[in-house]
Amino acid sequence: MSINVEQLRREFPVLSQTVNGKPLVYLDNAATTQKPKAVVERLMDYYYKENSNIHRGAHYLSMQATEAYEEARETTRMYLNAAFSREIIFTRGTTESINLVASSFSQKFLKEGDEILISAMEHHSNIVPWQMACQQKGATLKVIPMDEQGVLRMDTLDELLTEKTRLVAVSHVSNALGTINPVEDIIGKAHQKGIPVLIDGAQAVPHMKVDVQKLDCDFYCFSGHKLYGPMGVGVLYGKEEWLEQMPPYQGGGEMIKEVRFTGTTYNELPFKFEAGTPNVGDVLGLEAALRFVSYLRHDVISVYEDSLMQYAMKQLATLPGIRFIGTAEHKTSVISFLFDDIHPYDSGVILDKLGIAVRTGHHCAQPVMDFFNIPGTIRVSFAMYNSLKEIDLLMDALKKVRTLFS
Amino acid sequence: MNIQEIEGEIILEFASFEDWLDKYNHIIESARNIPRIEPKYKEEKFLIQGCQSQVWLRADLEDGKVIFTADSDALITRGIIALLIRVLSNQPPQDIIDAKLEFIEKTGLHQHLSPTRSNGLASMVKQMKLYAIAFKAQTEAQ
User: Fold this and answer.
1) In 3-state terms, what secondary structure has residue B47?
2) Residue B115 above 60 pLDDT?
């Protein structure tokens, strides 16, 4: 099996438009992916035929919607190969998943003088929640450094994992550099010292098969919208043993067992962490996305996306004055670069005029930009529907940018 | 020339360009003529917030007129602020405060004006007007 890109693109109506009179070349997939018809149609079906509040009513629609919602949880469990579906919490996205753990875990387990360990290549979403937790508890945030290639300095890990470390939070794949981090090794080393590990999988899940039991991570977070699903929905996987011990994140309906003015008892997992009416429609949309990706098969998608990246790297390397930011051996679907002295913002404006959507700037990873002492980069990121022809169009456009600014 | 006359001049220049590429070329050309802020002022105090590229802007009052100097690390941004300076620099504070800056829309530069656009043209205009307001208040107090 392989990807038939022409056929596949027909599943993504947004891709067939023109921008500024040019065919859209969408290479900003690390920011968000486009949605296949299967996902949009699932949302429509839900709102046209099934909409109802769940876990409450005894009426037909409510029972149907409840069943569909819980089935989506089971689909997500299978997708991640979690042990139990109660270990799957639906959230608004990766950011909320991390905030949930940072808040709830820290409330129970973090105290003054403790340490949380993150890495030098984290997205702001995997920095700020931990900074907030540390500030609140008087704990310290420690950082695993990286080298000039954008690879984590694993040699520093033993020293950084101390008896004060309460949790390690690292990205599976860097959004700014594309580096695939050796999370198995990090988890193994942390577990030797009894320290739990949270993996920010926002950039990994779209490009590789993730098996949370095989990884043995304690928490895994991702967003639906980077995986061809709707915006505003995401997943937190947490090992039952941790989730059971953690206090609720938000209070409200759904997460309670009994409410009296004298006190409240909380519902069991996963409902304890899903206060209020859940985002049923988008969860079903996410389920459709997971099915869509599973149907195409991750191994097939990975091979195809790797071929896109190899081709793009080879072509880009022919541009004089190009400087790749992030040159790790293990990378996926993200290429960050600068060329000549052209400011990434200038390139981005002109590329947009030429119909090419890339991301320019610091990619919500300012510490990474500071490390390389650059204002930002041009980031090209691929999805399953990109084509070799689009990379050729990108190359033509970059040559025009060069002419304009030289 | 007063503000409106200079605006008219810029509108005419832009009207002569047939495609967007020429417009951008003109913006980039304008960047080369920017009255540069002295390097020693390239510091936090003169940095305009809300820009994906960095913009430093400084203003001085000379003989009742505001003199702007600026710089940016991105060429397009530098070109845009150079055009703003061409219109607003060397003018009395009250005229700057009153300026409607219609040239921004008439040249198509308004595409960059939306507050969500990261080059922060809106922030630049706001900052220039704030300087004018400050100088006016300062003059009146004397």
Assistant:
1) strand
2) no
